[in-house]
Amino acid sequence: MDRLRYIAIAAGIAVTACAAAANLDSMLVETGYLHAPLAPATERSLEAEALAKEVVAVRSLHSSNQPGDWHHTGEGSIVWYGTTPVLTVPVNTDGRRAKGSPDDPDYALYGHAVATLALPQLSLDEYNRFEIDIEPRCPGNRAVTLNLSFSNAKGSRAPGYNEPTGAHLIILDNNRVNRCFLEIGDFRRDAIETISLSFSINGRDMTTSDTAAFRVLSVEAQRVPATEKVSGWQPADGHIIHSMSGYAADGAKSAIVSLSTLPEGTPFTVVDTASGHKAFKGKVGAQTTSIGRFGIIDFTKLRKAGDYRIEAAGIASAPFHIGGEELWDGSCWKVLNFIFCQRCGYPVPGVHSLCHDDLMSEHNGLKRAYNGGWHDAGDLSQQTLQTADVAHALLELSCAKKKSNPLLAARLREEALWGIEFVLRNRFGDGFHASSVGLLIWQDGIHGSHDDISTVRVQDVAYDNFLYAAYEAYASKALDNDPMLASYLATVAEEDYAFACRRFEADGFGGWINPYEHTYCTGESQHMATASWAASMLFDLTGREAYAADAARYAEYVLASRCDEAPGDCGIKGFFYRNPSKKTPVHYIHQSREQLFMEALIALCRTQPEHPSKAAWHQAVEDYAGYLKALMAYTAPYGMLPAGIFSDAEPDDTEAFYALHLFPPSNAPEQFKSQASKGVQVAPGYFVKRFPVWFNIFNGNLAVHTSMGKSAALCARYLHDAELLDIAREQLYWTAGKNPFAQSLIYGEGHRYPELNNFSSGRITGAMPVGIRSIADTDEPYWPQINNACYKEVWLTSAGKWLSLVAETELYNTLS
Predict the structure, then answer these.
(1) Predicted local distance difference test score (pLDDT) of residue 19
(2) CA distances from 756 to 44, 47, 114, 744, 764 (A)
(3) What is the pLDDT of residue 105?
(4) 446: number of CA atoms within 13 Å, CB side?
(5) Torsion of Cα atoms, 389 then 505 then 605 then 547, to 10°
(6) Hey, what long-range contacts does 64-69 have (CB within 8 A, 24 or more apart)?
C-alpha cells in the first residue's frame, strides 16, 4: 500500500475511532449500563480492513455459472436450488443424547453436517486467499457459525511445520449474504483437493428452529497485494506498532516500526488529533536486541493528556489516548460487556435464553443446578474456581475505581455478585464443591428429558478451598454495602480454610480427580503460597493470630523453593521452583496464577511487619522483581514478559512434567528439550523462553504474561518502583496492539481486532482470546487468521486477568 493512501486510511480510522470513543457513553446508556450487549463495531475490525483490499487476480472454484463438485457427509443433506448448493441441517435432536469421549462424556455434540467441494489437486500458489459467499437461513439462531477447512494433497505446512492447519471458525450474520475469506499465504497450496464447510449441531436455544440452511453462492481463490503478517518479531510492514488504547501520562511511551518502513533518523511527530497541533517531535531511533533490529519511536516526554496519532514519512498511526485514571475505562467497559454476555443461567438479550438449568451436580444424595457464573470460553463449559477468579478480579477493579469512576465501579460490583452467588451456591458445606463440567450443548431446560446432565464434577481439594477462602475473605471486606452477605462470606471463608487444612493434613498436595480442572497443574510452592495468602487474608479479616502463624509457616516452604543463587553465571535469580528440590522452575503453558507468589509474600510483609522473617519475605519480593526486570531484555523492544526460565532436565521430574503438560505425545521429553533449546541459553541446561513449551491444544499466552504483569504491578506498588509499573503496563500495551501484528486482542477496542472463536455465542464486544502462541519448535509469535481453538478461542480467564492487572496498575499511587 502506498504511503499517501495509508495516511488517508489512518486519518479515516482516526475519525471512526474517535467517534466510537465519543459514542461509548451513549451506547452504555442504551444498554442500561450493560444489562444488554454492546453492538459489535465490525467496521474497525481486521476483517473489514482485509475485505477492502484490492483483489488483483481471481480464479472461480464455484459459482452459479460454474457449479462445483460438492459432496455431503454427516447429518442433513445438500439440496440444490438450480446451480446453488444449500447445506440443510436438522437441528432438532429428536430425543438423541449427545455422546462424547469416555474420559469426558459430557463434552459432546449431536453431530456435524459437512459440505465438501472436491478439487483436482489444483495448484493455487499464485493466490493467497479464499473468498466464499454464504447466505445462512437459520430461523431463531442468534449465533450462526461454520467451520471452513481445506486440504492439500502434499501437506499443509512447509517441512518442519507438521501441525495440521485446523478449521477456521466463521461467524455469520443470519439471513444475509456474508463475504467470508481466509488468507492462505502461509500454507502450502500446490495441490488443493478439498474445501469444506462444517456445521456443528449443539442443541437448541429457546428461539432456535428445527432446521438450519446455508446457501453457498460462490467460492474463489484470490490474490491480494499483501496478506497479514502471521509470525515473527519484525513489525508488520507499513504499520506503526503502538498501544491502540493509549499510554499512561506518567510512564514510558514508545512505538515500534520496521526499519525498512521508517529508517533510523526519520523525523516523526506526535499530533494532537483535536487541534492538529504537533505536540512532540523526534527522530526514529534504532535498537538491536536478541530478537532483531528495530526502529523505535520514543515519546515518553509527552505527558499532556489528550488524543494523538504518530506521523512519519507519510505513514500515520491510528489515534490513541494519553491519560491517567481514565485511560483504561473504555476497555474495561467492553471487557465487562464480554463477561456479562458469558453469563450462564441468565437470558442475555440477543445472545441466548436462560440456559442449563437441567445441568446438575450430585453429592451425598443431593442435587444442585450448575447454572450461573459464566461460561468458560467459546464453548459452554464451566469452572467454579475460574468464576471465582473472575469475580475476584471484578471486585478488585471495582474497589480501584470507586472514586475515579463510581458508575463503572458499581457495575463491576454487580457483575462480581453474579459470580459470587454461583460460587457460594456450589458449596456443599463439607469441603466439597461442584467444580467443573466440559460442555458444548444447549439443553432444553426440562428436567427428566433426554439431555439432562447430572455428572458435573464434584471434589474436595485442599488447594481449591484455600483459594476460595482467600477470595471469600477479600469479598467480605469489599462488599461493605451488604453487611449480611459480608458476614456470611467471612463465615464461609473460615470454613473453607478449615476444610483445606483438614484435606491437606490428610492428603498433602494434589487430590484432583480430573486433569481438566484448571488448577491441576499447580506446583507445591504455588500451593503453599496460596495457603499463606489465604491465611493472611483471614488474619487481616479477623485479627486471629492463628492465621498469622499459619501464613508465616506456609511461607517457609515458598522461601525454600525460590532460586536465591543464579544458575551458572547468568545473573538471573529470584524465580521459584515447584518445590524445594529445585528441579523444575515454575512456569505455565495456559492457565496461570503466578501472581499468587507475590500476593502471599507482600501480604505477609504488610500484615506482619514486625515478624522475624519480614526481611526474608521482603528480600524474596525484591529478588523476584529483579527476575522480572531481567526477563524484559529477551523480548525488547516489545514489552511482553517472557514465559520464564526453563531447565532441560524438567522431563526427568516426571510427576511435575506430566501434571503441567496434559495429554502429551509419546515423545514429549524430546519435544520439550527441542523447544527449550530454541530459547536463549543463559546457563548450562537453563534457557529463557519467550513463549511456553506446549504440545497440544492448550496454547496461547495471554494469561501467562498478564499474570506476571500482575506480579510486576504488585511489586511496583509495594517497592514504589516505577520501572516495575512500566513493565506491568507493557502487558496491557501488548494486548492493546503493541505487538508485531499491529492487532488489538480485545474485540472492539482500538482497531484491527480479529474475529475470535466463539461458536456458542458469536461476535461479542470486549471478547479476549487465549492469546498469541508460537508454532512447532520456534520461540517467536505466531498469530494467523485461522480462527481456531485454543489460541483464538474467547476465554473468560483472559478477561479476568485484564481487569485484575488494570486494577493493580491504578492502585500504584495508593499506600502500600
Answers:
(1) 58
(2) 14, 11, 22, 11, 9
(3) 85
(4) 9
(5) 90
(6) 64/217, 64/218, 68/117, 68/118, 68/119, 68/219, 69/117, 69/118, 69/119
- Residue 135 in grid coordinates: 447466505
Nearest CA-CA partner of 501 in 550, 539, 434 = 550
Query: In this model, does residue 164 exceed pLDDT 70?
Result: no
C-alpha Rg value of the chain to the nearest Å: 26
Q: What per-residue confidence (pLDDT) applies to 93?
A: 83
- Residue 387's nearest CA partner among 418, 353, 348, 356 is 418
CA distances from 761 to 199, 210, 343, 441 (A): 15, 19, 11, 12
Q: In a 10 Å sphere around its CB, with 0-12 CB exposed, 13-18 middle and 19+ buried, how is residue 368 labelled?
A: middle
Rounded to an integer, what distance in angstroms lies between the CA atom of residue 426 and that of residue 36? 26
Burial class (CB in 10 A: 0-12, 13-18, 19+), 35: exposed
The letter for the amino acid at 589 is I
CA-wise closest residue to 330 among 404, 408, 252, 410:
408
E strand or H helix at 800: helix 796-810
The string of pLDDT tens digits covering residues 252-268 is 999 999 999 999 999 99
Residue type, 488: Y
Mean pLDDT of the chain: 93
pLDDT category of residue 372 using cuts at 50, 70 and 90? very high
Q: Hey, what amino acid is at 534?
A: A
Q: What is the 3-state secondary structure (H, E, C) of 492-509?
A: HHHHHHHHHHHHHHHHCC
Which grid cell is 330?
473504555
Cβ neighbourhood burial of 669 (10 Å; 0-12, 13-18, 19+): middle
pLDDT of 29 over the 80 cut: yes
Residue 218 is predicted with a pLDDT of: 96
Residue that has been written with the C-alpha cell 479479616 in this structure: 541
The H or E element containing residue 278 is strand 278-283
Q: What 3 state SS string does 663-701 have?
A: CCCCCHHHHHHHHHHCCEEEECCEEEECCCCCCCCCCCC
* CA distances (Å), origin 288, targets 234, 295, 341, 727: 12, 9, 44, 19
Residue in the block written with cell 496461547: 700
Q: What is the mean pLDDT of residues 312-329?
A: 95
- Chain center to CA of 403: 28
pLDDT for 3 equals 47
Q: What is the rounded distance in angstroms from the CA atom of residue 723 to the CA atom of residue 725?
A: 5
- Strand-pair category, 680-683 with 112-122: unpaired
- Residue written as cell 469416555? 102
Angle at 545 (CA atoms; ends 540, 547), nearest 5 degrees: 65
Cell reading at 768: 479476549
- Per the CB < 8 A criterion, the answer to whether 376 and 338 are in contact is no
The H-or-E segment that residue 707 falls in is: helix 702-719
The DSSP output letter for 55 is P
| 3-state SS assignment for residue 292 | strand
Tell me the C-alpha distance between 367 and 393, whole Å. Answer: 29
300 closest CA partner among 726, 639, 750: 726
**Residue corresponding to grid cell 524474596:** 620
Q: Are strands 320-323 and 246-248 parallel, antiparallel or unpaired?
A: parallel
CA distance 609 to 603: 10
pLDDT at residue 7, as a whole number = 46
Share of the chain above pLDDT 70, in %: 96
Please report, as a single letter, which amino acid is at residue 144. V
Tell me the β-bridge partners of 195.
117, 150
Evaluate if residue 21 carries a pLDDT over 90. no
